[in-house]
Write a structure and sequence with these properties.
The complex is a heterodimer. Chain A is mainly β. Chain A has 1 helix and 13 strands, in the order ββββββαβββββββ. In chain A, strands 4, 5, 6, 7, 8, 10 and 11 form a 7-stranded mixed sheet that branches. In chain A, a hairpin with a 2-residue loop joins strand 7 (72-78) and strand 8 (81-94). Chain B folds into 2 domains: 3-66, no CATH class; 83-136, no CATH class. A 3-stranded antiparallel sheet of chain B has the order 3-2-4, with helices on both faces. The termini of chain B are far apart. The chains are: A mainly beta, B alpha+beta. Chains A and B meet through strand 3, strand 5, helix 1, strand 7 and strand 8 of A and helix 3, helix 5, strand 1, helix 6 and helix 7 of B. Strand 10 of chain A pairs antiparallel with strand 1 of chain B.
């Protein structure tokens, strides 16, 4: 795994997809495999450092039985406009093909007014708390726990 | 500062009228910062509120959602290379728009209009962890 000045920087490596047939935007993106909650199946999820918050699609939130009653109401600006929903903590796993998977818990915005199956890993309360690096030539996404 | 000046300063602080901003609840001010994507400022204000302590507000929810993500565990069996599944999505997406698909090793296992239908179809599959589910928009 990657090291920084002799110390371990990341714990796992995953291959990411840089294109998606379901995205109208032609620019390259980063899609990685993630396990959410106890679903036990991987979901392709976009890593978006430009998004303030992570978003979990309503059907996925329902499938993993996210405790919405414990969420905090918020109105956020998203790529699909202003949405009302809840901020909740959700457990998820970044899946590694090399090294170790990373089980962690991040803050996600969940709103009914959102397309099914469209999940994002955003910056606040998630990417800002882990370490990650990209090798765009090899389509490799490296990740590890924050310090 | 002399003792007299210090006392006068303390009294001035005590008699100072709170600003309009300070009379609003921490809860609402934190929410406004969160909604403006000013997360660092929201965390700083939350820290101030927690330190102050006697504001009478329940900020447990904000403490939970504004806390940094915590690594719970690292480890587990290595996953197979997903490239065949990514290639399948590139090659076949047009035929499955609006549907959830389940892929493994570049092969379609099942598909359907809802996540629940696909999950139910895969209930007895032996390699659950490595199945890739995706909704094609």
């Amino acid at each position: 795994m990657l090291t920084l000045r002799g110390d371990r920087f990341t714990c796992g490596r995953a291959t990411f997809s840089d294109s998606s047939p379901f995205q109208p935007e032609p620019t390259a993106k980063v899609f990685v495999r993630v396990w959410f909650g106890k679903l036990q199946k991987a979901l392709l999820t976009q890593v978006d450092t430009g998004a303030a918050w992570s978003i979990l699609a309503p059907d996925v939130a329902q499938a993993i039985q996210v405790p919405l009653a414990a969420g905090d109401p918020a109105t956020l600006s998203t790529r699909f406009g202003i949405k009302q929903g809840l901020l909740v903590k959700v457990g998820f796993t970044l899946i590694a093909e090399e090294g170790d998977h990373l089980d962690t818990e991040g803050t996600f915005f969940v709103t009914e007014d959102w397309p099914d199956g469209l999940n994002f890993l955003g910056y606040s309360g998630l990417l800002d708390s882990i370490r990650f690096a990209l090798d765009p030539q090899a389509n490799h996404f490296y990740f590890g726990p924050g310090i | 500062m002399s003792k007299r000046a210090k006392k006068a300063d303390t009294m001035a602080q005590a008699l100072r009228k709170p600003t309009q901003e300070e009379t609003r609840s921490y809860y609402d001010r934190i929410r406004e910062l969160v909604e403006a994507d000013r997360v660092d400022a929201a965390r700083a204000l939350l820290g101030e509120a927690v330190e102050k302590g006697n504001h009478g507000e329940n900020l447990a929810g904000w403490q939970r959602v504004l806390a940094p993500a915590k690594a719970v565990r690292v480890g587990g069996k290595k996953a197979p290379d997903p490239t065949p599944d990514f290639q399948w999505l590139k090659d076949h997406a047009d035929s499955y728009r609006g549907q959830w698909v389940a892929l493994l090793g570049g092969e379609l296992l099942t598909h359907g209009p809802t996540l629940q239908k696909v999950v139910d179809d895969l209930e007895s599959h032996p390699q659950k962890d490595w199945i890739l589910l995706h909704r094609i928009h």
